[in-house]
Amino acid sequence: MINYLKQLFSKSEEPHADVEVLLPKGENATFELRVDKLVIGTLHCENGVWEFKYTEDFKKNGGNYNHIAGFSNLNKVYTNDSLWPFFQTRIPGLKQPAVKEILKKEHINESNELELLKRFGKKTISNPYELELV
Questions:
Q1: What value does the mean pLDDT of the chain take?
Q2: 75, 82, 83, 103: which has the highest count of C-beta atoms within 10 A?
């Protein structure tokens, strides 16, 4: 079942040709998810685990904004060993020639989920949110 779900979110035309993209255990970083200068939440990774939580500012002042898909509980700290689809969509297909060129030129490891998110994750055409490394 897990492999089937991974294929659904795969960005490759060939089902088994993808490099497995993971968060390496030794990687640590924090991002802020923003819209209109309001910090909605923080995405943090440490020791191979991703964590997302809403900010107190958003809880108090976010009445004009929807909750993020997959994160319906404002008070919950979400944890997972793989990046959620909402954030995965910020990483382009690794088979695209332009993306391959960037990976090679900038020496980015295509299997490192954090490095890919740092490089490509700031903006996406699929939603108005910005993801800033802090």
A1: 85
A2: 83
